[in-house]
Amino acid sequence: MIRINLLPQQRRVERQEQSQLWMVAILVLLLAEVAGFFVWHGQLAEELEQRQRTNRELEAQIAQSKRTVANHSDVLKKLEDLRARETAIQQLQAARTGPTAVLLELARLLTPGRGPSISPEKLSQIRQENPLSIYNAGWDPHRLWLTSYVEKARSVRLDGSARNGEDVSELARRMNLSDFFTDVKLLPGQKSKDKATGLQLVDFQLEAKVQY
Q: With 60 as the cut, is the pLDDT of residue 157 above it?
């Protein structure tokens, strides 16, 4: 009977199987690392793209801000031009209607039963502080008449005649109370005689600033 020892061959087969298992395990690890690398690379690429997108948005905002700042001076210049035009229009409008309003106010001061343009509250306060500065509601404006009215650069000069100095003072008081006149000054006058009636009169001159 012949005996064949198969133990070394069996061990050889086992070693080969173990080697193959190791190779398979190493190959699996390599594949896992390669897969992990691709996943990690994909995440980095996505993060990079996100950052690049954010940078592009920031650059666009910066460019828009630069354009806005660049146009800021032009916008301010246009606003200044518009305001200057508006001021000029207002001044022209005031110059057109202002003198008419002043003349109407002067006519109101010389109308029986009328008085200066002033708020009741302001008039009441002035009456409490200085009763002598309040106008005489019963004054007869026919005792005074104007012969000249000249306005230049918001300054006006009135020439006229009155029955006496109190009539001239009454006109000055009314002008001082009016919202249309300031800095009313009564210049030195002189006495005269009306040729038609022979009445003694007072020739006067008034200066004032007009506001409208």
A: yes
